[in-house]
Structure formats: C-alpha cells, structure tokens
Write a structure and sequence with these properties.
Layout (H helix, E strand, L loop, with lengths): L2 H8 L13 H4 L27 E7 L3 H10 L4 E4 L10 E4 L2 E4 L7 H15 L9 E6 L13 E2 L12 H6 L4 E6 L7 H12 L3 E6 L7 E2 L13 H6 L12 E2 L7
Parallel strand pairs: 1-5, 1-7, 2-5, 7-8
Antiparallel strand pairs: 3-4, 6-10, 8-9
Helix pairs in contact: 1-4, 3-4
C-alpha cells in the first residue's frame, strides 16, 4: 500500500476519532517499506475493559509498544488513533570535509513507523465500527533522554490538549472514563497531565494501569501540572523544540559555522 492508503487505514474518513490521528509519521515515510516489524508477540490485555464500557484508552508506551497494543485492542473492538508527532531523520549521514558523518537522532521513530506500516494490513482486515471507542497512541520517549547538541537531529516532541478531544466531545459520545496505560509511575508525564487533568475536572474518571505491576487498573488523581491553564503554556513549551514543515517536530541543529 502507498503511504496515503496506510494513513487512510489508520484514520478512515468515517471513523469518529480520525480527526485527531497525526499524519506526520505517515507523510515522512519514503516509498520503500520500513524495516520488518514483529507484530506477533503476545500482548496481555487481561486488564482492558470491554469496548461496551465506553472507556477511552491512552497508551503512553515506548517505541512500537503502543502500536502493538493498539492492534491487539483493535481486534477487540477499539479504534487505535496514532498521535505520533515526531518526524524521522531524512538524512542519517552527512558529507563533511573529512568524509561521511553519522547524524545522531534524539528520538528513534522507526519502530513506530515499521509497526504502523506493517500493521495496516492487519487493521484493514478488522470490521471496526465508525464509533468504536478510541485507544490513543503516544510514544513515552517523545521528550527524549538527552538535550540537543550541535549536529544532531532534534525530533523531541510534546503533546498538547488540542491533540485530544475535549471533555465535552468525549461526554457527548458517551465516554465517561479514561484509562491511562504506561510502563511505570504513579502520575502521567507532565505534558499529558494537562489533558488528563482537564478531563478529570470535567468529571471524567481517570484510571491508571501500570504494566510493571500486576492487578487491575486503579483510580488516579492527576496532580495539577506546572503552568496549568496558562495562556502562554503552548508557547513556553515549544520554546527550544524544533518544528518541521510537515507540521510535526524534527530538524537538524546547525553546527557552528555550518550555516
């Protein structure tokens, strides 16, 4: 399939939640298929509510784990919604006076790209209802693990409240609960906390499922994040990040004297 057809598979026009699917990773895919992806590793969903319970899921998981879990949930009736907003490095090597130099990329998005590409056929074979409850997919490593430096490709990203449906939209479509799934920790990541806190203040119940512990999801009170409600929050958050012409995050940090 073409990258346009793959995106259409993940965000069909008749699906209720497709307007929030991010096209960035699909748009920056080249004509060649990404590296192989293992889609057959078992995924434990014993904790997952049935789609009939009208719960929206937020999978904040590293690498391709969100896509793999999203596909497993799709087989049960959920609509996976990719929210990956960082672009891949289009030029992993640069020619210099001393020969070719590898360009370090701060966030590896290729595992997600491969899983999205190769998982499209599996998703296409499922008869998901247009109003199927959503499972929003985020990369837990989106903010990177190190600060940018000269010569690197900086594709660190963040999520905003506008990347998700409003509380009014959720409630209007019978979504009265949200389940956050993450590897560890008692609170969501700071950027995601802004969205979840707003939902919680609108009386949408927030539960947390940690994958590093056994047992069912448990209610969580989302702590009020720093600068919550600030008009300048978006501008402040974007400061220091690199935007891309595709609408996502990613760009080469120029080296001194490199223009």
């Amino acid at each position: 399939m073409s990258k346009e057809a793959i995106y259409e598979t993940w965000a069909p026009q008749d699906a209720l939640w497709s307007r929030w699917a991010k096209p960035v990773l699909f748009a920056c895919s080249n004509a060649l298929q990404p590296r192989p992806a293992n889609l057959d590793d078992p995924v434990d969903l014993s904790w997952a509510p049935a789609p009939s319970e009208h719960v929206a899921l937020v999978l904040d998981l590293p690498g391709n784990q969100g896509v793999l879990m999203g596909l497993a949930l799709a087989a049960r009736g959920y609509r996976p919604v990719p929210l990956y907003n960082a672009v891949s490095n289009p030029q992993p090597f640069l020619e210099t006076e001393n020969g070719m130099r590898e360009v370090i990329t701060l966030v590896d998005v290729h595992p997600m790209m491969a899983a999205l590409w190769h998982g499209a056929a599996r998703l296409q074979g499922l008869a998901l209802q247009p109003e199927a409850p959503p499972a929003f997919l985020l990369d837990a490593n989106r903010r990177g693990v190190e600060e940018p430096f000269a010569g690197c490709f900086d594709n660190r990203s963040v999520s905003f409240i506008t990347d998700f449906p409003s509380s009014n939209f959720l409630l209007a479509h019978q979504i009265h609960g949200v389940l956050l799934v993450q590897i560890s920790g008692h609170q969501p990541q700071p950027d995601l906390a802004h969205t979840l806190r707003r939902w919680q203040e609108a009386r949408i119940a927030i539960d947390l499922k940690r994958l590093d512990t056994l047992g069912p999801p448990a209610p969580v009170v989302v702590e009020r994040p720093s600068r919550f409600g600030w008009l300048w929050y978006r501008f402040w958050t974007l400061f220091g990040l690199t935007r891309n012409e595709l609408g996502g995050f990613g760009g080469l940090i120029a080296e001194p004297g490199g223009g």
